[in-house]
């Protein structure tokens, strides 16, 4: 067990699987007290069991519902004493070409990614302002630059980058930095769903994706966890309002 984040409290949304789970696990292994919020009760219970040796708090909560978020954040503070690091990772996909995309497909993605991140940031900022310290890290995506079949997701992830830069300006004077990590192709349940949507095997999707990745491999959730850790570190206090593309090359 490391001590890089010993004494810190990290809150990770959507932390029951994939990238979120890797981020939560990393913080726990590096000494932080970790709170995980998710709507998937079964997956949340599983990750809680996997991390039972660490100081971990799990809570079923929907980030789209501001009251649920406020209650969950208060419980975390009551349990651990503070919230120092927040990772807005909760997300969903409802991929489709524009002419096939329903109103619900659009709104669901907007709500979870954008409204959810707004709700969490708003709920935690008061505690961080009082402490004069905070790290907010939003998980964006290379899709923010545009991606076929993801008008909703691309727009939401681009919006997160705007939110990141605005919060950096507003909260920076209080010792709170806000940055974003934008993953490229990462092997997760979500990318497996993408393969299924476009009618190919996951192995075929990985092989096709490798053609555009200079380092010659696809990304793993741990790659994103390490990037998040950089922004979360106390020593990164002069890095604020930045978007880090973690995509294996200069072209996201």
Features:
alpha/beta, single chain, globular, Rossmann fold, 7-stranded parallel sheet, 252 residues, 15% strand
Structure description:
The protein has 252 residues and is α/β, with parallel strands linked by helices. The chain has one domain: Rossmann fold (3-Layer(aba) Sandwich). It is 47% helix and 15% strand. It contains 8 helices and 7 strands; from the N terminus they run E-H-E-H-E-H-E-H-E-H-E-H-H-H-E. It has a 7-stranded parallel sheet, with helices on both faces. The mean pLDDT is 96.
Describe the secondary-structure layout.
Blueprint: E1 9-13, H1 18-29, E2 33-38, H2 41-50, E3 56-60, H3 66-80, E4 85-88, H4 103-131, E5 134-139, H5 151-171, E6 176-183, H6 189-198, H7 202-210, H8 221-232, E7 243-246
Parallel strand pairs: 1-2, 1-4, 2-3, 4-5, 5-6, 6-7
- Which residue ranges are poorly predicted, with pLDDT under 50 across at least 5 consecutive positions? none
State the name of the first-level CATH class: Alpha Beta
Please give the largest β-sheet.
Answer: 7 strands, parallel
Mean pLDDT: 96
CATH fold annotation: Rossmann fold
Number of domains: 1
If classified by CATH, what would the architecture be? 3-Layer(aba) Sandwich
Distance between the termini: 33 Å
Report the helical percentage: 40-55%
The helix/strand class is alpha/beta
Q: How many distinct helices?
A: 8
Tell me the name of the CATH homologous superfamily.
NAD(P)-binding Rossmann-like Domain
Share in β-strands:
15-25%
Series of H and E elements: EHEHEHEHEHEHHHE
Q: Using the CA coordinates, give the radius of gyration.
A: 17 Å
Strand order of the largest sheet: 3-2-1-4-5-6-7
């Amino acid at each position: 067990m490391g001590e890089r984040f010993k004494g810190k409290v990290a809150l990770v949304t959507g932390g029951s699987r994939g990238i979120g789970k890797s981020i939560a696990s990393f913080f726990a292994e590096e000494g932080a007290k970790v709170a995980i919020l998710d709507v998937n009760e079964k997956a949340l219970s599983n990750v809680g069991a996997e991390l039972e040796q660490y100081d971990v708090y799990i809570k079923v909560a929907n980030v789209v519902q501001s009251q649920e978020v406020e209650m969950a954040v208060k419980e975390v503070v009551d349990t651990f004493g503070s919230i120092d690091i927040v990772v807005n990772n909760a997300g969903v996909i409802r991929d489709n070409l524009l002419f096939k995309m329903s109103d619900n497909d659009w709104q669901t993605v907007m709500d979870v990614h954008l409204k959810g991140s707004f709700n969490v940031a708003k709920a935690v900022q008061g505690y961080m302002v009082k402490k004069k310290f905070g790290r907010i890290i939003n998980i964006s995506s290379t899709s923010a630059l545009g991606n076929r079949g993801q008008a909703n997701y691309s727009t939401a992830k681009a919006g997160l980058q705007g939110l990141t830069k605005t919060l950096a300006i507003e909260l920076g004077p209080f010792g709170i930095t806000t940055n974003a990590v934008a993953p490229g192709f990462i092997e997760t349940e979500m990318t497996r769903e993408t393969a299924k949507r476009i009618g190919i095997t996951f192995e075929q999707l990985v092989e096709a994706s490798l053609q555009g990745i200079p380092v010659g491999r696809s990304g793993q959730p741990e790659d994103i966890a390490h990037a998040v850790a950089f922004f979360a570190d106390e020593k990164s206090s002069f890095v604020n309002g930045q978007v880090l593309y973690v995509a294996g090359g200069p072209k996201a």
